[in-house]
Amino acid sequence: MKIVKSIKDLSVYRKNKFVSFVPTMGALHEGHLALVREGLNCADICIPYIFLNPKQFAPHEDLEAYPKTLEADLEKLEKTGAQAVYLPDADEIYPDGFSTSVKVSGISEMLEGEFRPHFFDGVATIVTKMLLQCLPDIALFGEKDYQQLLVIKKLVSDLNIPVDVKGVPTMRDENGLALSSRNAYLNEEQYQIACHLNRILSDISKGKINENRGREALLEAGFDKVDYCTVRDAQTLLPPDENTTERRVLAAAFIGTTRLIDNLAMSQ
Ligand code: PAF
């Protein structure tokens, strides 16, 4: 597997190839590898990137604590069959004097945007830069970060970036917990609590309980704080109205200092 370090080498390497691109911040798990496998299915070569993007973390968030597992990540990518990985240094991405930020109004200001106001500007900025550096044919993102997927689709459309953005269904463990690098922070007792998130969202998605009951159920299950637990229009993320054709239930909740998010399509 080729390790590409610079923007120039990336553009030389990807030239004349039909490329899929998988953005990651490292700490790779099966969810990331599923994106790479899908990328390999739909393009000649798949290039994941690993870049722990400081701009999407607020000062009080877990940038320092974020798991850094580069050697294991490279091994996993190699085994999965990725032909190359883009591994730029921070000064390649944010050189001295870097002063541009990409903001996607509307869709990035609700839900995650309300509780993590810096987050989507950081994500939109890095993803725009990376897409322009690689100019892939296809870019793959997990549906686990559903709002992020919509924000990226919107920025690609608004900025006419010539890439097809593809969402890939969430990978779950045997207990239904959505795979996330942050699951590594959970001890056994917290893990048992975390497994309720998917079950409660599943009950909401099937119409067995409503979103208010879902919020209560999360607290009863042991979550310490619920940022949101809500059913939204799956395209706009606004509260559903008469034009809504698909709905999605989304939630974010804390166990101790670990914040978990998940979402499911509503089946009715
Ligand atoms: O989902 C993530 O891991 C990150 O937000 C992304 C898309 C790689 C941007 O840093």
Give the number of domains. 2
Number of continuous helical runs: 9
CATH class of the largest domain: Alpha Beta
Task: Look up the CATH topology of the largest domain.
Answer: Rossmann fold
Q: Please give the radius of gyration in angstroms.
A: 19 Å
Strand residue percentage: 15-25%
Count the beta strands. 9
CATH-scheme architecture of the largest domain? 3-Layer(aba) Sandwich
**Mean of residue pLDDT values:** 97
User: In CATH, what is the homologous superfamily of the largest domain?
Assistant: HUPs
Short summary:
This protein is α/β, with parallel strands linked by helices and 268 residues long. It is built from 9 helices and 9 strands.
Produce the secondary structure layout.
Blueprint: E1 2-4, H1 7-14, E2 19-24, H2 30-42, E3 45-50, H3 70-80, E4 84-86, H4 90-93, H5 112-115, H6 119-134, E5 138-142, H7 146-158, E6 164-168, H8 188-205, H9 211-221, E7 225-233, E8 247-255, E9 258-265
Parallel strand pairs: 1-4, 2-3, 2-5, 5-6
Antiparallel strand pairs: 7-8, 8-9
Helix pairs in contact: 6-7, 8-9
The protein binds pantoate.
Describe the protein.
The chain folds into two domains: 2-168, Rossmann fold; 181-265, Pantoate-beta-alanine ligase, C-terminal domain (Pantoate--beta-alanine Ligase, Chain: A,domain 2, 2-Layer Sandwich). It is of the alpha/beta class and 268 residues long. A four-stranded parallel β-sheet has the order 3-2-5-6, with helices on both faces. The longest helix has 18 residues, at 188-205. 37% of the residues lie in helices and 20% in strands. The mean pLDDT is 97. The chain has helices at 7-14, 30-42, 70-80, 90-93, 112-115, 119-134, 146-158, 188-205, 211-221; strands spanning 2-4, 19-24, 45-50, 84-86, 138-142, 164-168, 225-233, 247-255, 258-265. It contains nine helices and nine strands. The protein starts with a strand and ends with a strand. The chain is globular. Pantoate binds next to strand 2 and helix 6.
